[in-house]
Amino acid sequence: MKVALLQGGRSHERGVSLRSGARVGEALKELSHEVVALDLGPELVSRLRDFSPDVAFIALHGPEGEDGTVQSVLELLGIPHTGPGVSACRRCMDKSLSKYLLREAGLPTPDWVTYSEQALRDFGAAETFPVALERIGLPLVAKPASQGSSLGITVVTGAEELPSALISALSYDSSALLETWLSGRELAVSVLDDEVLPIVEAVPKESSTFDFEARYEIGGASFTCPAELEEDETAEVDRIALAAYRALGCSGFSRVDLILSGDGPQLLEINAIPGMTETSLFPQAAEAAGIGFVEMVERILSLAA
């Protein structure tokens, strides 16, 4: 097949996307597909039309590539693409919207409040900080509403830290979440064509959270796959993860991130287009299921085509 490999982009996760794209590109060539790697930019549509691909493999992360923007362009051009469609991508990318939809579906997710730059700037929303702290408690996590790879995340342990944590989160996005911080085991559940793959547990080595460095630096975290859980814990984590995947309308493949706390699994977010780097969790889960990287890429491609 003729495959347009979309990688790079202009988000903060450009470097991660290029690494994902490089691995995927090697696999596609090993599978004897005709591959053209394309970056996002003003010539994207004309280059897609010139190449006329049978399918687009999306290895983009962050805004524009993971939020439904490029998916909508591909769908207008009639080009099948890997991963979820426009609406699911938008739901997954907006963490606040995701959490509202998860709550509506009766699924567990930590308490949160959302602040926008506009509300803080134009409406004096900073005066509601004491109310937010009373609702979600301390410690809490401040995070951008629409970023991935744990960018812009700060753990807040005191009220005096809240303004600077929000400023940090809002430097990545126009809205930010304050979310109850839960102590527990950090788990990732990958879903491939409605099949739940073995659970990955991530244990950061240097920091208390699975942040950007822990995710993408070799040796930044240790991973266990399958995670060492009791049988009933595994079944419940799998059930909730698959329900979340379906609640947000995902298809093809995605990854669900959770915390296994004392109150059971709590959903954090759904990644519409998981990373494919050497340290990414989705390929680790596939490997544990007996699906090698090249076979995994072929399956993802076939689901789109």
Protein architecture, described:
38% of the residues lie in helices and 23% in strands. The relative contact order is 0.16. The strands form 3 sheets. Strands 8, 9, 10, 11, 12 and 13 form a 6-stranded antiparallel β-sheet that branches. Strands 4-7-5-6 form a 4-stranded antiparallel β-sheet. The chain starts with a strand and ends with a helix. The longest helix has 17 residues, at 14-30. By secondary structure, the chain is of the alpha+beta class. The chain folds into 3 domains: 2-82, Rossmann fold, CATH 3.40.50.20; 91-108 and 184-304, D-amino Acid Aminotransferase, Chain A, domain 1, CATH 3.30.470.20; 112-180, ATP-grasp fold, A domain (Dna Ligase, domain 1, 2-Layer Sandwich). The protein has 12 helices and 13 strands.
Care to count the β-strands? 13
Total of DSSP H or I helical runs spanning 4+ residues: 12
Mean pLDDT: 93
**Beta content:** 15-25%
Percent in helix: 25-40%
Based on CA inertia axes, which overall geometry fits?
globular
Give the full name of the CATH homologous superfamily of the largest domain. Answer: ATP-grasp fold, B domain
Looking at the structure, the CATH topology of the largest domain is D-amino Acid Aminotransferase, Chain A, domain 1
Given helix and strand content, the structural type is alpha+beta
Cα separation of the termini: 9 Å
Pattern of helices and strands = EHEHEHHHEHHEEHEEEEHEHEEHH
| Biggest sheet details | 6 strands, antiparallel
- Low-pLDDT segments: 210-216
Taking Cα atoms only, what radius of gyration do you get, to the nearest Å? Answer: 19 Å
The domain tally reads 3
CATH architecture of the largest domain: 2-Layer Sandwich
Using the coordinates above, name the CATH class of the largest domain.
Alpha Beta
